[in-house]
Design a protein that fits this description.
- Helices cover 72% and strands 11% of the residues.
- With 151 residues, it is mostly helical.
- The chain has one domain.
- The protein has a 3-stranded antiparallel β-sheet.
- The protein is globular.
Length: 151
């Protein structure tokens, strides 16, 4: 039984939620804390998209799937991602994953002047709605590209 269509469907659902939050909910509510929820939904979309690609390649007997998610991600980066995505698209996926990781590990987060700031030790990451919309735009292209290739 094919698993990848379900993962692809979930990826699209999470993307649609993030897109709606960025372009509708954020505009109405003007709540900067929504930015981190948008990043969170983008992260789940990316994870489901990676799972869909890995499952597709596994079903076509081109790779092995491991119980360890770190090994599966390594397989994706080294073997699978390059077949479906350009270098810039791979970088975007890594940016989204790193933003979610920074959020989970952050010591402090706060909103200041239309920006959401994530602090980790001496380093910090600043999110704006424009930056998030840019990431969403590129992710939309990746979703369409991968959806077309996995048929």
């Amino acid at each position: 039984m094919e698993k990848w269509p379900e993962s692809l469907k979930k990826a699209k659902q999470h993307f649609d939620i993030a897109d709606h939050m960025a372009y509708v909910s954020f505009v109405i509510l003007k709540e900067n804390r929504l930015m981190i929820k948008i990043i969170n939904e983008m992260y789940y979309s990316v994870i489901c998209l990676i799972k869909a690609m890995l499952d597709y390649e596994f079903e076509n007997k081109r790779i092995r799937i491991y119980h360890d998610s770190a090994l599966n991600f390594k397989t994706f980066r080294e073997r699978v991602g390059n077949m479906y995505l350009a270098k810039k698209e791979m970088e975007l996926i890594l940016i989204i994953i790193n933003l979610e990781k920074q959020h989970k590990q952050s010591e402090m987060e706060f909103v200041k002047n239309e920006k959401f700031v994530i602090m980790n030790g001496e380093r910090y990451e600043t999110l704006t709605i424009e930056k998030i919309k840019g990431l969403l735009s590129i992710l939309r292209g990746i979703m369409n590209k991968v959806s077309g290739m996995l048929k």
